[in-house]
Amino acid sequence: MAGIALEFAHRRHLDAIQRYASDPAIGALSNVPSPYPADGAAQWLAWAEGEREAGTGVHFAVTLDGQCIGSCGLTHIDGKARRCQFGYWIGKPFWGKGYATDAGSQALRRGFHELPVDTVEACCLLRNSASLRVLEKLGFDIFAETSNGNNPKWPADEPIGHYRLTRAAWQAHQSQAAS
Ligand SMILES: CC(C)(COP(=O)(O)OP(=O)(O)OC[C@H]1O[C@@H](n2cnc3c(N)ncnc32)[C@H](O)[C@@H]1OP(=O)(O)O)[C@@H](O)C(=O)NCCC(=O)NCCS
Fold first, then answer.
1. Could you tell me which of 58, 82, 55, 76 has the C-alpha nearest to residue 10?
2. Whose CA is nearest to atom 16 of ligand 1?
3. Is-above-0.90 flag for pTM?
4. Contact partners, residue 132, CB within 8 Å, separation at least 6
5. Is it the case that residue 1 has pLDDT exceeding 60?
6. Under DSSP, is residue 85 helix (H, G, I), strand (E, B) or coil?
7. Domain hosting residue 157, numbered range
8. How far is the CA of 130 from the centre of ligand 1 (A)?
9. Which among 7, 73, 99, 160 counts the fewest CB atoms within 10 Å?
10. Predicted confidence band at 101 (pLDDT cuts at 50, 70, 90)?
11. Residue 105 pLDDT more than 90?
12. List of residues 6+ apart from 162 with CB closer than 8 A
């Protein structure tokens, strides 16, 4: 299929996930481990399959013309609170072409149509300007700013933005984009 598409995480994606996620640029501003372990992609797939089986997460390979170029996922699915978390990364050779926004838009559509959620949340380092822009383009709004807390990857005072997209805001954003 041409263009950006989402495929459920599968072992056919492992080589590409391992190759692109190993670039320190991916982990530098995201929760992707850095340095990326030699079996990082295999660990990711085992986690993705476990979450899908348990109904707590849906993990996708982002593909461009059928080739895996990154990943995104809807995690921490909480059917009672009708909420989940959104995360994503795109291989560095493909940055700046709108692919994260396209993949994110497809993931959100699937989330709101197929999962028991009315709110999607995302956390982002406030210095991750490209990711903040992706969230903005997808219609997310910031609802809280905190310091890092206890993620050992960042300094304790690292500013983190907490973003939210409700179903109603997503629908309004869709209508606005279509008009
Ligand atoms: C964040 C990331 C997913 C963006 O992927 P991408 O495919 O390049 O994103 P898009 O092309 O859809 O959109 C990027 C936007 O950020 C903008 N941008 C890029 N670098 C920027 C910067 N330093 N300052 C401000 N805006 C920036 C681009 O111009 C574009 O906005 P525009 O369409 O208005 O011009 C990618 O950089 C990545 O994987 N980073 C490492 C992992 C990561 O940070 N994941 C998110 C964790 S919260």
1. 58
2. 130
3. yes
4. 124, 126, 161
5. no
6. strand
7. 4-178
8. 3
9. 7
10. very high
11. yes
12. 121, 122, 123, 142, 143, 144, 145, 146
Q: Which of 95, 105, 96 is nearest to 138 (CA)?
A: 105
Q: Residue 179: its pLDDT value, please?
A: 82
Q: Please give the tally of structural domains in the chain.
A: 1
Sheet architecture: strand order including 67-78: 4-8, 58-64, 67-78, 83-90, 119-125, 159-166, 141-147
- Counting ligand 1 atoms within 8 A of each CB, the residue from 90, 138, 154, 160 with the most, and so the one to mutate, is 90
Does 40 have pLDDT greater than 80?
Answer: yes
User: Cα–Cα distance between 105 and 174 in angstroms, integer?
Assistant: 10
Those residues with Cβ within 8 angstroms of residue 157's Cβ, 6 or more apart along the chain or in another chain: 147, 148
Ligand 1 lining (C-beta closer than 6 Å): 26, 29-30, 88-90, 95-101, 124, 128-131, 133-134
User: Which CATH number is 165's domain given?
Assistant: 3.40.630.30
